[in-house]
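Problem: given the chain below (89 residues), write out its structure.
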Amino acid sequence: MVWINKGYPIKRIFSILKINRSTYYERENRKEKTESNVKRGRKIPGFSWDKNKKQISDEIIKDNIKEIKSTDYGKFYGYKKVAAALRKE
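Solution.
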């Protein structure tokens, strides 16, 4: 805001504009985060573990899901039923 940069009191500006200071600062912080494009979290490993502690690649899992969904009854499966069918295999 121009008035803040000129040195006017922040409380006074926000009372005149009838906005909360928290709203202003939250939006400013959101702008900074999107501008810096910060990526969070760990990298996706590309595999999962089965019950026997063996690695299964994501490509194999994707193929299995496509196979399950391609059947007549699989078209109506949600994620819970698909997960149960994957555990059976």
